[in-house]
Amino acid sequence: MEFDAEFYFFVGAVLLVLFFAYIGVHKMIAKGLDGRIEGIEKELAEASRLRAEAQALFDSFAAKTAEAEAQAASIVAQAKTEAEALAKEAQVRLEDYIARRKKQADDKIALAEAQAVAEVRSAATDAAVKAAETVLKTSGNQASFIDQGLASVKTLMN
Question: What is the pTM (predicted TM-score) of this model?
Fold first, then answer.
């Protein structure tokens, strides 16, 4: 019987596979694959744990952000209330200041009017006294009596 090269190749391949099976290459390959699977499973477990931690941190930060926003809104509302109260107080103070200044101006005006009236009366009295003096001096009699009367009128008018 004549064997060709393909037959010898086939017999050699079968013997090589049997030899590898005898020394346990298939077990080594399976063991390597199992180790690789274990490594991948560990990496997946670590990734899952890290994802859970990241989600927990994200939730924590989201809660803190919501709390900070609520607190900021509360602070803004309180500041707005205080600003309105200060504005009302400033308005009351301004109105009070204006009223006091108006009263002071009215008092000054009243004082100026009183002084003007007194000056006008004094001027009128002086004019009346001079006129009376002129009239009496032209008549020429009782000069001392006239001088006393003029002095008493001046005293009474001032």
Answer: 0.42
